[in-house]
C-alpha cells in the first residue's frame, strides 16, 4: 500500500487534487509566484483537512503560512542550517539521490525522504542516473523514515514501485492526464491495493 504524493505546478491542478482527496499535495510553482494565493492555500487546512499541503523549496513561507510541510532539495540544504530545519514549525521532506545525500538529510531530522529518480524523467533536470526499483527497495528496507519514490513513475511503473513497500509515490506529469477527481481517486485506490 502506498499513498499518492501529488506534485502540481498550478492552482488549477492543486484544486483538482484537493477535490480528489490526495493525501499529499506539493506546490511546485516554477516561474509562477505562490504568494498571491496565500489566503486560499491557508484555507485548505480547514476545507481539506485530509490533505497535507507542502510548499516546495521555501521553508520560511511554509512556516509563515502554517501548511503541513516544506520540501527541500539538496541545494536548499546549502542555505539552511540543519538546526534551523530541525526547529521548523512544519514537517520537512528532503530529496535524496545517494547514500551520502541520505546521511546529509538525516542530520536535519526530516519527516520523510524523497528518493530518485527511480526512472528517467523529463520534468526536472537531474544529474543523477535513474536508481531503479531494486535500489529503491533497498532504501525502503533500511530506512526508518517514510520514503517518497519520485522520477518517471507512470502507469507501467506504478505496481513495481508500490511493491517495494514505499510509503508514497510522487507523480507529476502522469497526473496531467486526469481531469476529474474520480480518475485520481481510482489511481489512489490502485496504489492502496486490495
Structural summary, described in words:
The chain is of the alpha/beta class and 194 residues long. It has a single domain (3-192), classed as TIM Barrel (Alpha-Beta Barrel). The chain is built from nine helices and eight strands. It has helices at residues 11-20, 38-47, 59-65, 74-77, 82-86, 99-106, 132-142, 155-162, 181-192, and strands spanning 3-8, 24-27, 52-56, 69-72, 91-96, 112-115, 147-149, 168-171. An eight-stranded parallel β-barrel has the order 1-2-3-4-5-6-7-8, surrounded by seven helices. α1 packs across α9 (181-192). The longest helix has 12 residues, at 181-192. The chain is globular and about 40 Å long. The termini are close together. The model has no long low-confidence stretch (mean pLDDT 95).
- Calculate the terminal CA-CA distance, rounded to whole Å: 9 Å
Highest-level CATH class:
Alpha Beta
Query: What do we call the CATH homologous superfamily?
Result: Aldolase class I
Strand order of the largest sheet: 1-2-3-4-5-6-7-8
Based on secondary structure, the structural category is alpha/beta
Shape type: globular
Total separate domains: 1
Unreliable residue runs: none
Number of strands: 8
Mean pLDDT: 95
SSE string: EHEHEHEHHEHEHEHEH
Q: What percent of the residues sit in helical stretches (DSSP H or I)?
A: 25-40%
CATH-defined topology? TIM Barrel
Assembly state here? single chain
Describe the main β-sheet briefly.
8 strands, parallel, barrel
Radius of gyration: 16 Å
Secondary-structure arrangement, i.e. CATH architecture:
Alpha-Beta Barrel
